[in-house]
């Protein structure tokens, strides 16, 4: 596993409005601060401006963005991130700088992993990097993305899409989900979980989770969801049904189903499956336990059942997934 270099595009010549600074700050926060106790070396972050002169962000904010790197520095980076593009390029069809599009193409041809957050997908699409691929952006802009780039398979219902060497996310917090997903891919679940804890954010939200849901979290503990979901996470090795969880939450199964779907954007059974798969991933990364034992501890049952769900949801077998991470210390992990 390796962190590598991350180049972040800062459109200094066309301006970064103040409301887009959030997306820009996400990769800076995740990849820019060294975490030697988690991984050493950490990522090498480069902020690459699209012009020599800084631009004022947001017009009246008085904030100037100055970068030490230019577009040529995108080429050779292991990962290239486009956090967003200015509103006129999305709403009014204002052309993106030709040299930016060319630099993105050259970076991809050189082997970089290409990533967009929010409206950054418009830049990857303009470069032709999303043609024939499934991709997403903020749900407010996905219709424009699909209309302008018909070769892109736009999915407006997910937090992020991992298509291997090209990844796209919805806006705002979904960009943080995707960046933590990259850390998980590069450095493993333990590092990503510890980093998320330091940032006081959820360690992992599956990319397929809905962008827009009625409630992102239960509004109060008296709804009974928070405690019962924490209890379920601690008992994933046991058979759990919707009826079991509803009973523990002192609700009818129908009420529990409705409230959990409103709170998480997914059904109770899918939520349980996601939690079990996350548990299995952590065990595959951090232990040398046999596949059948991991199936047992994650609540997925037999090794064959684990493989079935793993291939369907993750895209590779448990063995292939484990080989992407260093061998665990023999005997390490729960027994």
TrEMBL record:
Which species expresses this protein natively? Streptomyces sirii
Q: Give the superkingdom in one word.
A: Bacteria
Name of the protein described by the UniProt record:
Helix-turn-helix domain-containing protein
Keywords, ordered alphabetically: DNA-binding, Transcription, Transcription regulation
| Pfam families in the cross-refs | DJ-1_PfpI (PF01965), HTH_18 (PF12833)
All copies of the HTH araC/xylS-type domain together span: 226-324
């Amino acid at each position: 596993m390796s962190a590598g270099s991350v180049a972040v595009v800062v459109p200094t010549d066309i301006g970064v409005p103040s409301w887009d600074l959030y997306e820009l700050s996400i990769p800076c926060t995740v990849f820019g601060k060294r975490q030697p106790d988690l991984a050493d070396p950490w990522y090498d972050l480069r902020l690459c401006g699209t012009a020599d002169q800084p631009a004022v962000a947001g017009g009246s904010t008085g904030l100037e963005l100055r970068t030490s790197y230019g577009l040529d520095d995108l080429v050779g980076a292991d990962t290239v991130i486009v956090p967003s593009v200015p509103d006129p390029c999305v709403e009014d069809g204002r052309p993106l700088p030709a040299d930016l599009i060319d630099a993105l193409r050259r970076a991809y041809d050189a082997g970089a992993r290409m990533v967009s957050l929010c409206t950054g997908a418009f830049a990857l699409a303009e470069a032709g990097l999303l043609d024939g691929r499934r991709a997403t952006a903020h749900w407010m802009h996905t219709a424009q993305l699909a209309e302008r780039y018909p070769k892109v398979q736009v999915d407006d219902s997910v937090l992020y899409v991992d298509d291997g060497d090209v990844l796209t996310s919805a806006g705002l917090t979904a960009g943080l989900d995707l960046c933590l997903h990259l850390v998980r891919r590069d450095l493993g679940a333990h590092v990503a979980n510890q980093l998320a804890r330091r940032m006081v954010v959820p360690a992992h939200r599956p990319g397929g989770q809905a962008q827009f849901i009625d409630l992102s979290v239960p509004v109060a503990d008296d709804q009974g969801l928070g405690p019962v979901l924490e209890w379920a996470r601690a008992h994933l090795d046991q058979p759990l049904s919707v009826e079991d969880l509803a009973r523990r939450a002192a609700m009818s199964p129908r009420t529990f189903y409705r409230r959990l779907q409103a709170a998480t954007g997914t059904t109770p059974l899918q939520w349980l499956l996601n939690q079990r798969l996350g548990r299995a991933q952590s065990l595959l990364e951090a232990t040398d336990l046999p596949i059948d034992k991991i199936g047992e501890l994650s609540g997925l049952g037999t090794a064959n059942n684990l493989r079935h769900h793993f291939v369907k949801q993750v895209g590779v077998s448990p063995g292939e997934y484990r080989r992407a991470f260093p061998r665990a210390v023999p005997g390490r992990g729960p027994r």
